[in-house]
């Protein structure tokens, strides 16, 4: 079977990452969470008080940022490292989530991260999820998935995930954040969130995680 690139795009909290992780494990592919890269940059900007509207400051900060992924055998997936430190515990917090779309819309940030994402996919055999993977990062991906889901279902799932990390956030706040991120992600000038022409749409509102994974695996097998 040949090694292919599977691009999974879609709105926030549609189940992209969970699906991508499981698909990668089943196929023995690498999983790359491109959102984690934007989150790591955002976390760095918050920690170092970087002003996103100052291009020089942004460029300088980006030169100091090194993002890598290290596979955690126990968890069965890769974790995100920023300048050598594991930042998984920080990058999913609400303070990062609230700023990440604004920082991701900066063209200079996108160019840097897209370059790195393309390098990570050079050998193929990867599943990458994000917002512009099928349209921009890997327009030649063999399989492109576009995930959608009902807003209330998405907010409920995100709330449960946050609770598992001991963060209690109300549904209205989560819904507002999802709507705001969807809007910024879809309306930004540089590579906005779009469904690629050749992408398969999966509505995950009423599917279990296993059903989502099964659908993607079926499509992947046809391409391999
Ligand atoms: O996937 P996740 O929700 O963790 O992504 C966080 C944010 O990173 C998104 O809301 C979006 O603003 C940004 N992002 C992006 N392009 C990607 C992946 C994520 O702009 N390829």
Automatic annotation (TrEMBL):
First-level EC class: transferase
Location of this chain's protein in the cell: Cytoplasm
EC number of this enzyme: 2.7.4.25
Keywords: ATP-binding, Cytoplasm, Kinase, Nucleotide-binding, Transferase
Catalyzed reactions: CMP + ATP = CDP + ADP; dCMP + ATP = dCDP + ADP
CDD domains: CMPK
InterPro entries attached to this UniProt entry: Cytidylate_kin, Cytidylate_kinase_dom, P-loop_NTPase
Keyword Glycoprotein: no
GO biological process: nucleobase-containing small molecule interconversion; pyrimidine nucleotide metabolic process
Domain Cytidylate kinase: 6-221
Chain sites annotated for binding ATP: 10-18
Any one Gene Ontology cellular component term annotated for this protein: cytosol
Alphabetized NCBIfam families for the sequence: cmk
Family membership noted in the UniProt record: Belongs to the cytidylate kinase family. Type 1 subfamily.
Protein name (record): Cytidylate kinase
Source organism per UniProt: Marivirga atlantica
């Amino acid at each position: 079977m040949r090694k292919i690139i599977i691009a999974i795009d879609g709105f926030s909290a549609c189940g992209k990452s969970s699906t991508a992780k499981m698909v990668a494990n089943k196929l023995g592919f690498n999983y790359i969470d491109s959102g984690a890269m934007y989150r790591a940059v955002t976390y760095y900007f918050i920690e170092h008080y970087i002003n996103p509207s100052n291009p020089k400051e942004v460029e300088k900060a980006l030169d100091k940022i090194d993002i890598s992924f290290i596979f955690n055998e126990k968890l069965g997936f890769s974790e995100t490292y920023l300048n050598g430190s594991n930042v998984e515990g920080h990058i999913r917090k609400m303070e990062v989530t609230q700023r990440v779309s604004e920082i991701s819309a900066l063209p200079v940030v996108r160019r840097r991260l897209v370059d790195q994402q393309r390098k990570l996919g050079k050998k193929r055999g990867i599943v990458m999820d994000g917002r512009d993977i099928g349209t921009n990062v890997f327009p030649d991906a063999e399989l492109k998935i576009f995930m959608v889901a009902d807003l209330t279902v998405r907010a409920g799932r995100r709330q449960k995930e946050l609770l598992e990390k001991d963060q209690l956030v109300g549904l209205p706040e989560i819904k507002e954040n999802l709507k705001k991120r969807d809007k910024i992600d879809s309306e930004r000038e540089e590579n906005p969130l779009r469904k690629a022409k050749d992408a398969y749409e999966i509505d995950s509102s009423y599917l279990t995680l296993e059903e989502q994974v099964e659908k993607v695996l079926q499509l992947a097998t046809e391409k391999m």
